[in-house]
Amino acid sequence: MQRRMMTSRQWWLLAGYAACATALFCAPLVLSDFRLNLLAKFLAYAIVALGLDLIWGYTGILSLGHGVFFGLGGYAMAMYLKLDAGGGRLPDFMDWSGLTALPWFWKPFGNFGFAVAAGILLPALIALILGYFTFRNRIRGVYFTILTQALVIITTTLFIGQQAFTGGTNGVTGYSQLFGSSLASPDTKRTLYFVTVVALIAAYALCRFLVKSRFGKVLRAIRDGENRVRFIGYNPALYQMVAFSISAALAGLAGMLFVLHVGIISPSMMGIVPSIEMVLWVAIGGRGTLYGAALGAILLNSAKSAFSESYPTIWLFFMGALFVVVVVFLPKGAAGLFGQFKRLIRRRTKHEGADGVRHPAV
């Protein structure tokens, strides 16, 4: 059998991936500890954007409830850190609320492996249950979006109301170490940064594998014509449920990493506003292009940080102007610029080739 030769496009693609990975791994050499921690947080956001693009960009299902899945992952990690920091004592907010014993559902989170598994599997399970009752009943479009917003309202209300178990509006905070190492230590921050980079690369590789496989082709077919997919013998609901669950699991993973970098999780981080911001990352970065979704999360949050630092009183106006410019002039998002550049290169290449035919060298 002959080996399949890589095309020039594949070589350029591979070189681009290698350059991005190299830049991420070399970032600690040029960034301060503060900037590196910010970048790590933005990379965690990029993982959320990848999962959201999988369900929205490739399956055509808009979810405004990913803040819930992000928050559940964050709470799972925060519960472990809180118990580890307490050394067997009750968390402070439980003591203030009059509890005398650790609730039964908190006890398993004293194990790091259980906390990580719960942070990924619990959001996936909730998404699977929600998807089962919605996709099987062919609830989609704006109705599904409203249901995800209802999920956000219910969850945030529950977490705020159950202060004795969740910390209420303050959330879960007050932890300072992981495996005996201080979370504020520069060495720990750099280690967690590298963990986040590896998680982002793994999440991107998983999503790219899915969208390039037969599974991804079915997802795009569902996006473009769900009834046609159903008529040729596929069950769209099954594919939608799987995609939604994977998307939620990635959001949960991002939430756990976020807590490790920021040191707090509260109901405000799983509300409607954060969920809408996540959609904006994908839309402005480029829906239906995984790299665009990740790039949108990093660039938008970087711009938000830069504007708020330089113009603390009017930075929201700059963000609004940025959104307007992208929507009006870049309807396909920032990734659309790369598409335009590639088309320009192809036109020039064809033109030069045609010119060479008309005027051969003597």
Task: Please provide a written account of the structure.
73% of the residues lie in helices and 1% in strands. The chain has 14 helices and 2 strands; from the N terminus they run αααααααββααααααα. It has a two-stranded antiparallel ribbon with strand order 1-2. Strand 1 (177-178) and strand 2 (181-182) form a beta hairpin. It starts with 7 loop residues before the first helix and ends with a helix.
Keywords:
362 residues; mainly alpha; 2 strands; disordered C terminus
Q: What are the secondary-structure elements, in order, as H or E?
A: HHHHHHHEEHHHHHHH
The whole-number mean of residue pLDDT values reads 86
- Gap from first CA to last CA: 41 Å
Instruction: Give, in spatial order, the strands making up the sheet with the most strands.
Output: 1-2
Let me know the largest β-sheet: 2 strands, antiparallel
Count of helical stretches: 14
Percent strand equals under 5%
